Each structure stands twice: as structure tokens, then as C-alpha cells.
Sequence to fold (420 residues):
Amino acid sequence: MTWRQLLTIVVVLALPALPATSRAETAAAAATAAGTDFGAEARTLYRVGACGGSDAIPARFSTRAIDHHCHRMARRYDSYRAHWVDRARDFIRAIVPTGAPQVVVYPFGGGDLSSALTVFPDATEITTLSLEAAGDVRAIDTIDAGRLRKELDVIAKDVNRLYRAAHSTTKSLQTVSHGQLPGTIVFALAALVVHGQQPVSLRYFTIEADGSLRYLTGAELDAAVAEVAARAEADRAGTKKARRKRAAHYWREQESVFANVEITFVPVDQPTATPRVYRHIVANLDDEHLGADDRVLVHLAAKGKVSTMTKAASFLLWFDDFSKIRTYLLDHMAFMISDASGIAPADATAAGFEQIPYGSFKGPYFTKGDRKHVHRQFEKLWKDSPRRKLPFRFGYPDSTKKGGHLMITQPASCAGRVPC
Fold:
């Protein structure tokens, strides 16, 4: 008997005696509240796209094509583990406090579940936030074999680019997220393969005004897709104009019915373990958008104290128009690990934190938009601190494009102790 079957029995036994009609209505309401579980589709995509597990390849696909794709992916996984994951995990384990919260928030994180699991391998809940929509996992049920081969080739190249660079670019993430297969979800499933995990369930959700999550049913998703298609057809000219309009930082959040996703997962060798939770939320984190709609901030605040991370975040946390997400982090983080695109030293110090740098940092990878010369704070931090070696790259390189750098931001009461 599985844990789900046992849980169902316990819940049913706990219900008071009700008329048959009332029991049916209660069950229907519970199913609607839980949304539709697309775990079966996630597991197929996990096998076919991310090359996890050993389930049979669906008959509608070419076994030869999938085997070829998975041979390439296996090489990439092995190289990525050896050259980055193993080095970073062992190093970071020694600097993350034992009592750091196992609930993790990763802003500007794309679908980078792999880095989050490397930094916080025991996290029970991980939330990434970025501009890229999760995508429709159901596409794996209808995609034809020829299109699948093309999509897998794009995914393999982008996974390779992600793993070789040790960070994801917005351009790459948005390119793969526009494919027929849900690229953001494939990235997450690939992360599960790298870290010896497998998906259990996949649900889509929206965030309510009070920050709670409402899971969506398949019928709701279908209705929303039809509504969006009708609106796009009726307002085609306006939509084109909107697409031409650039946001302050160029990239805009993707408007998608399949925006926010929750994937639960367990170790491959412990299928009955308590599932852990990964959520990806589409959000433009600048002040204009968060000021107009603060549901994301309300949802994140309800988590209490969290561990946080960011890397290769376009240095957006330096800027005045990202003050709301920066304030959230400073108010709720117990610990943060980042490259120089994290919290600026002046902001961290004012909020009662200290920062300890590793590696070498001569200047930012790029300085576009840094009108207040925040980069000088980071250059001074590294210059004035003892040299601490870093055997891998974490996020952006510095201006020399050599070596790597990383910093931890922790309460000033730690007084330089690592781990605190």
C-alpha cells in the first residue's frame, strides 16, 4: 500500500457520516481544491526529455531518437556533476549554517532548480521566480515524433549551455520557454535527474490576494487557453503594439495560462519518502509591477524566515526600482548566498548583515544601468577582505572573465564565523 492510499483511507475514516450525495460533493470539492495532477505527463517528459528513470519509451516516439538524445544528456550530466555540482556542493556545505531554514527563495532564478539543490541539498521547499512561464506539460501527449526530435535538440543545447556557463541567461531561458515542449519544466526535470530525484506530481496554480495558492483544474486551464486565444484574435493589433513596447530592463514577464507550476519530488531510491516541493512563479520583480500587484510578496512573506540565493541576476538588486524585492529579502532572509548580483554591501550593512566574499572580484561582468556606481562597493568588499579561495564559478564571472566569486550574507551577530 502506497502512502497516498494510506492517506486517503485516513482522511475518509476521519470524515463524519454523510449522505451519499454529500460525500460525493465533498470529494468533488476536494478534488477541485487540489487541482488536476499532471504527474503522469511530468513523468513521461522526465523520461523522454530529461532522460530520467528507466520507464519504457512511449510507442509513438522513436526509441532510436530518444536513446540518441539521452546519450548526449548523460554525457552532459556527468560532466556537470564532476566539474560543478560536486565541487560546489562540498564547498558550500561547509559555509551554510546547520540551522539555515530549509525553505528556499531564489529570485531571478529561471528554472534553475539544479543550483538550488546544489546549494541547499536538503531543502524541503524551493521557490524560483523569474519572467519565464513554466509551459504546458500536456504537450508531451500530443507532440509528433518529428517535432519532438527538433525540440529535444534545442533543449539539449540549452541545457549544455546552462551547465557549461554555470548560470542561465534570460535570452536562453526565454528561447527554450517558447518551444512546444515546456522548456522551464524540462530544466527542472533535468535538475531532478542530476540530483537523483524523480517527480511525483505536477500542478498549476495561481496566487490569491491573501498570498495563498489556488490549484487549477484541467478544465480551468482549457477555458483560460480558449479565452486567451479569443482575446488575442480580437485584439491582435494592440497585442503587437504591446509586444513592441520594452520594459525598463528590456525583458518582460511571459503572459501564460501555464505560468506557475508546482512539482513534488522524491529520491529515486526512496520512492515512499515524504515529497519535497519545487515551485516556479512568473513575476516581474520590479517596483512598478510589485506595487500594482503584491500577491507574490504576500505569498513569500507568509513563509517566514527563509534561506535565499541568487546568481547571474543582471545586478537588478542594485537598482532603486527593485527596492521591494530587496526589502523582502532583507526582512525575511536568515542567510543568503550569491555572486556580486546579490545585495549591495551598503544595504546589507544597514539591515544588520555582514558579507563574506570568496574568490576574486575586480569589477562586474557588465555595468549597464549602474548610475550610482554600486559596483565600487563590491570591488571594495573584495579588496578589503582576506583572500578566500573558490574552486568553481558561481554565477557571473567578473570583469576579467577569469576565476569566480561568491559571497555569503549573514547576520552581523555571526561576527565573521563561517558557518555562523
Q: What stands out?
A: Residues 36-337 form one domain. Strands lie at 103-107, 125-130, 197-207, 213-215, 260-267, 276-282, 306-310, 333-338, 353-359, 405-411.
